[in-house]
Design a protein that fits this description.
Length: 147
């Protein structure tokens, strides 16, 4: 149920006291009533773990080793505002353990996480925000047009 184009709120929660995403936006994810303003790992059976400053561009195989250690059935990689695919070398720790992995936008990963967790699936989501825009020597964002 969309509250606005920038924020979405959910009412359905996973069964059995599992962790679920209540809402998300371009700069936050709310898990069981607590807002996080950093990238995080969320497992349906255990709480969130912050990955401050991690974006899809900085994702390493060692990050996914941590995810694989929790032995989820499936891992959702929320890659920011747009879907980005991750190198097979980076996701190798999951593939080598026969853990399913899907790359999707952060918004899609949040929605999918709740659906899978509500079904009782052992799900993990690595939810990554877009990196902050680079600032040039003139103090302008690299994405900002000159005035």
């Amino acid at each position: 149920m969309a509250l606005s184009p920038m924020s979405t709120s959910f009412t359905a929660q996973p069964d059995g006291g599992a962790f679920g995403i209540n809402a998300y936006g371009p700069d936050f994810i709310e898990v069981n009533g607590t807002r996080f303003h950093t990238s995080l790992l969320l497992h349906s059976d255990s709480g969130p773990t912050a990955f401050d400053g991690l974006s899809v561009d900085g994702l390493l195989a060692s990050h996914l080793e941590l995810v694989a250690a929790q032995t989820p059935e499936v891992v959702l990689l929320g890659t920011g505002s747009r879907q980005k695919f991750v190198s097979p070398a980076v996701i190798a720790p999951l593939l080598n353990r026969r853990i399913g992995v899907e790359c999707m936008s952060l918004a899609a990963a949040c929605r999918t996480f709740n659906l899978l967790a509500a079904e009782g699936r052992k799900t993990a989501a690595l939810l990554l925000f877009d990196p902050p825009p680079a600032v040039t020597a003139a103090g302008l964002s690299a994405a900002s047009p000159p005035v």
